[in-house]
Design goal:
cytoplasm, about 40% helix, Rossmann fold, Ribosomal RNA small subunit methyltransferase G, binds S-adenosylmethionine, about 20% strand
Length: about 210
């Protein structure tokens, strides 16, 4: 938890409490339905919570904006972001029902009012969003294919609407076809070794009505 406060020192008492609750909620739910590996449970705040919040270092979401988390799994990056941005509407989608069940239990445990969940493949989900966030779900070309048509027409933020994807490793091959992509290394924001090879990738996407 100190790790979160080190990089996000201005949390409200409610946010601090919600971030603190995550450890017990995930430990408890992970015993019933395994969604996070044992190693990752021991390093939940580094590998899941702080990593998810890396997106917030790149983009602060404005109140009223709408964010889709594709393939949220146990709720990453969507849940930590929903705690940090209580006035932003988050839609967390996963095709595996037991993962969404854990997400729903964590959302209920935290009493988060700004999170909607759906158990479905994202290709079947309709709606329009300012940004689409994700981690460890698909290669960029497949992902773009899935989410085209889900981008809102109006840009509320200075940064153009589109994808904010948490990626690791060498991305040059995967991203070479995208001329408008920007890669933000998380090592510019976080000191821990874990972030040495991690980035947030922003890919603006056009509205397709
Ligand atoms: C490796 S897990 C990553 C989970 C989470 N984003 C994280 O980083 O901890 C990939 C998740 O994507 C989901 N997924 C894969 N393809 C999907 C699709 N087309 N629509 C919705 N969810 C999908 C899987 O069910 C799985 O839970």
């Amino acid at each position: 938890m100190e790790l979160i406060l080190k990089y996000f020192p201005h949390l409200t008492p409610l946010q601090k409490q919600q971030f603190e609750q995550l450890q017990a909620l995930y430990e408890d739910w992970n015993l019933k339905i395994n969604v996070v590996s044992r190693k990752d449970i021991d390093e939940l705040y580094l590998r899941h919570v702080l990593h998810s919040l890396g997106i917030a270092k790149i983009q602060s979401f404005l109140p009223g904006s709408r964010i889709l988390d594709v393939g949220t799994g146990g709720g990453f990056p969507g849940i930590p972001l929903a705690i940090l941005f209580p006035d932003v509407k988050f839609h967390l989608v996963d095709s595996i029902g037991k993962k969404i069940k854990v997400v729903e239990e964590v959302v209920a445990g935290l009493q988060l009012q700004n999170v909607k969940t759906t158990n479905a493949r994202v290709e079947t989900v309709s709606g329009q969003y300012d940004f689409i966030v994700s981690r460890a779900v698909a290669q960029m070309d497949t992902f773009v294919h899935w989410v085209q048509g889900k981008i809102a027409k109006k840009n509320l933020h200075e940064r153009r609407n589109g994808i904010l994807y948490l990626k690791g490793g060498d991305l040059s091959e995967e991203l070479k076809i995208y001329t408008t992509v920007t890669v933000f290394p998380l090592s510019d924001y976080f000191d821990e070794d874990f972030f040495e090879t991690k980035s947030v990738v922003h890919l603006p996407l056009k509205y397709k009505g």
